[in-house]
Design goal:
single chain; about 120 residues; alpha+beta; Trna Endonuclease, Chain: A, domain 1; 5-stranded mixed β-sheet; 2 helices; about 40% strand
């Protein structure tokens, strides 16, 4: 499985994971010139901006470690554009990371880190 396929598979798993827990998926791969947000969802009163990181091993670190300060800033800027475009500036927002570790294709490990970072 190449990187693009692994990423798509990880995002599919993350969507199922969130749906099973009562999240409502609003958008996938929402893109603007300045960036992309993998999953945008609602859960209770919160609007969730979720970054999904898929790995086949921990050789180069965890998925959450890949969401460094620069990546966080890009996600925050992109989220602000989403909020402006859809008139959701008063929404309570949360920024999550979902790590997918695919060491075993039959049993991927999913770790949901809520409030992984913020403004």
């Amino acid at each position: 499985m190449n990187g693009v396929e692994k990423g798509r598979c990880g995002e599919d798993l993350a969507v199922v994971f969130l749906l099973e827990r009562g999240y409502r998926i609003l958008n996938r791969n929402w893109r603007v010139k300045s960036g992309e947000i993998d999953i945008i969802a609602e859960y209770g009163r919160y609007l969730i901006f979720c970054e999904v990181k898929s790995r086949s091993s921990l050789r180069y670190g965890s998925g959450a470690e890949a969401v460094d300060a620069r990546k966080q800033q890009r996600i925050l800027r992109t989220a602000m554009l989403y909020l402006q475009r859809y008139n959701r500036l008063s929404s309570l927002c949360r920024f999550d990371v979902i790590e997918i570790l695919m060491t075993s294709p039959e049993h991927p490990e999913i770790r949901h880190i809520q409030n992984a970072f913020g403004a």
